[in-house]
Design brief:
- This protein is α/β, with parallel strands linked by helices.
- It folds into two domains: about 120 residues, Response regulator (Rossmann fold), CATH 3.40.50.2300; about 100 residues, Winged helix-like DNA-binding domain superfamily/Winged helix DNA-binding domain (Arc Repressor Mutant, subunit A, Orthogonal Bundle).
- Helices cover about 40% and strands about 20% of the residues.
- It has eight helices and twelve strands.
- The strands form three sheets. It has a five-stranded parallel β-sheet, sandwiched between helices.
- α3 links the parallel β3 and β4.
- α2 runs parallel beside α3, α6 packs across α7 and α6 crosses α8.
- The longest helix is centred in the middle third of the chain and has 19 residues.
- It starts with a strand and ends with a strand.
Amino acid sequence: MASARILIVEDEKPLVKILKYNLEQQGYQVLTAEDGEAGLAVFRRERPDLVLLDVMIPRLDGFDVCKAIRLIARTPILMLTARKEEVDRIIGLELGADDYVIKPFSVREVLARIKAVLRRAESVADAKDETLRAGTLEADLARYEVRLKGRPVSLSTKEFELLKCLWQVKGKALRREELLEAVWGHDRGLELETRTVDQHINRLRGKLGAEASRLVTVKNVGYRLRTQ
């Protein structure tokens, strides 16, 4: 996405300086905030195209900021964290983050992830005005919305893309590897495993309520979406 505006919410000033310089060299417009409350204020005022969000920031931590943003927007969120425990990464994803990078990281890795996330978000935005339906479940591809019995369901970018992939093959089973390639294709060199798909499917089921049974596990293969 040319000239995308990126908000960096990070309290490590040297890191902000490095990220800001490199992002601007790539043609991005950069906004910054040093704590969670300031980050939310900038987000509400400026509505950037992507948020680089550190977990350990003052006043409001990254998890709280992520949760607050997800209540009002589907803007892609890439979390930066020094925590290596899997549970912390899962918490971020469950709150609606689209991806995460573990510190220390290379600027090149961050740039690659930003491009991948923006590319996916742009492709969804460019989708035709199409609404997919299965029982009481609806997905509006153009508006990036999922509704259950007419009520909105909050999904992360990857959760939405997983659901979309399964929906568009009209009930056919997709292997975990196929889903990983379709949804995380540009990140395949970044230590992703097929269990990533399982984790996202489990979160999807948790959000789809009575329609969760439509996500069917196909033994030794992967998953399919029962659309009838």
